[in-house]
Amino acid sequence: MIDAPRLVCFDVDSTLLAVESLDFVLTRKLGPAATEKIEALTSGGMNGTLSFRQSLMARLDLTSLKRSDIAAAAVELRQHLTPGMAQLLSDLRRRGDHVRAVSGGFADVLSLALRDLGFGPGETFANRFVWEGETVAGIETANPLSDNGGKPRIIANLRSNAQYAAVWMVGDGVTDLETLTAGAADHFIGFGGIARRDAVVERAPDYAETLGDLRRLLLG
Ligand SMILES: [Mg+2]
């Protein structure tokens, strides 16, 4: 009998990627002068003063994004993979783990970078824009990832469709930690190699300060 595989789910922004992807798109469009305003809305969603959806909507309200903005940012994002992550993912796949990306970011922005990291069709979960012609008009609000509690729902769904020996989640943020507290993941590793968030450092049972730490925790 073959042992059931392990499922290892990764957050994308500030975990697989060395940036927050939506903020990368917005800063690229609005210039460095807007950085402070964008970061305030992002951290509002992360520390709970805004819901995750409010934080997404407020950031999208800062400008009118076109298909050309998204396409150009998606190409540039390929240069912002977290160093060492591609090798780690490939080592996990080689030992038989099922590896998935679960993101509060947007599929159109992330698709090329995630393909570079070896993810195939059906192995990534992300938000989707609603388009009006060439312009972003909103977000698909039926997608669980567009609000708090979305990641636990995606992972619970993955586990109900397959037999796994154990389910692991890796991420920098409180929406990632929610997968453990909601009981969807068996293990959680906080990752601080890009962004170190106090609420996660204090509450995560395992915490990787660096990619080397993360490799040791996942590969032993
Ligand atoms: Mg993140």
Provide an overview of this structure.
- This protein is of the alpha/beta class.
- It has a domain at 6-19 and 81-219: Rossmann fold.
- Helices cover 46% and strands 19% of the residues.
- The protein has helices spanning 12-16, 21-30, 35-47, 52-60, 67-77, 85-94, 107-116, 150-160, 174-181, 198-203, 211-219; strands spanning 6-10, 98-106, 124-127, 129-132, 135-139, 166-171, 187-191, 206-208.
- The strands form two sheets. It has a six-stranded parallel sheet with strand order 3-2-1-6-7-8, sandwiched between helices. A two-stranded antiparallel sheet has the order 4-5.
- Strand 2 (98-106), helix 7 (107-116) and strand 3 (124-127) form a beta-alpha-beta unit.
- Helix 2 (21-30) runs antiparallel to helix 3.
- The protein is globular.
- It binds magnesium ion.
- Magnesium ion binds at residues 11, 13-15, 171-173.
Largest sheet: 6 strands, parallel
Order of helices and strands: EHHHHHHEHEEEHEHEHEH
> Judging from the principal axes of the Cα atoms, what is the shape?
globular
CATH fold-level assignment of the domain at 6-19 and 81-219: Rossmann fold
Question: CATH homologous superfamily of the domain at 6-19 and 81-219?
Answer: HAD superfamily/HAD-like
Q: Provide mean pLDDT, rounded.
A: 95
Radius of gyration from the alpha-carbon trace, in angstroms: 17 Å
Our estimate of the beta-strand percent is 15-25%
Give the strand order of the largest sheet, numbering strands 1, 2, ... along the chain.
3-2-1-6-7-8
- Terminal Cα separation, in Å? 24 Å
Helix content: 40-55%
SS content category: alpha/beta
* Name of the top-level CATH class of the domain at 6-19 and 81-219: Alpha Beta
Q: Uncertain regions: pLDDT < 50 for 5+ in a row? A: none
Query: Number of helix segments?
Result: 11
CATH architecture of the domain at 6-19 and 81-219: 3-Layer(aba) Sandwich
Q: Say which molecules are bound, naming each kind only once.
A: magnesium ion
Give the number of DSSP strands.
Answer: 8
